[in-house]
């Protein structure tokens, strides 16, 4: 998800997720479906390009965040430049992308900051660098591995040529761990830092848009909606368990939004309305992810998995726009 307005706000539900994760009980499933009653102040007043956000929950200048680092895995909704230097049709390193971002286009698929940029600022961290660009001590505070067109399944997004599927993103995280261990006191020190760090994962959109719904992919002929949702979440659970085995303990897992309402789907209709068929199609995935998270919390000791209900967040924004500013 990207912030597309010229005024960028902390979403109340996003703040609730961060606080629940940091202070929640181990093994607790938190489904964020309702906003907090009073929204926090705006992150940025952006009549001018983004330059200075309002203060986060902690003072960034102190060098101490609420967590040691933020590690990000996902697709174009949170990609911040990993596709810039690979042969891919899925790029956003040109205008009008980045028109409100200080420095211009970066590879983010939006005008300014993404959701994970907002989370980083809430946590008192700097903007997290893309894996393709992170150097030196930058990786100590986190890395963004997200790649536009990427999916849970390795074949997803092949119509865009280059992309970094979730399995490869996890492999890249492993590479980062080895790099950091050689610089920062060895594997034991890194393991402690990773267990206290936050992992944000937002995957699945492309498995529908650039796989199941694509006529040149066989999956829709092989699986009905429920079967495909089951297949995705079986892979997803194994991938998240792999991150857990690499040391992760605090996870925010974003569900899918109302995908029948995105521009590429709307453009296929003639009445300007959302596709009820596509919205229904992704429901089994979200339902399965909630169950998966509950199971992971129960079966993986000391883990804290939280489900971020993107669909509900956007429905609340549409239903109560005044709550989120003009």
From TrEMBL:
List GO terms (cellular component aspect). extracellular region
Say if the entry is tagged with keyword Lipid metabolism: yes
Listed A to Z, the keywords are:
Hydrolase, Lipid degradation, Lipid metabolism, Secreted, Signal
One GO biological-process annotation of the entry reads: lipid catabolic process
The superkingdom listed in its UniProt entry is Eukaryota
Q: Where in the cell is it found?
A: Secreted
Pfam families with a match to the protein in the record: Lipase_GDSL
**Entry's Gene Ontology molecular function annotations:** hydrolase activity, acting on ester bonds
Instruction: Give the range the annotation lists for the signal sequence.
Output: 1-27
Q: Which family does it belong to?
A: Belongs to the 'GDSL' lipolytic enzyme family.
Question: What is the name attached to this protein's record?
Answer: GDSL esterase/lipase
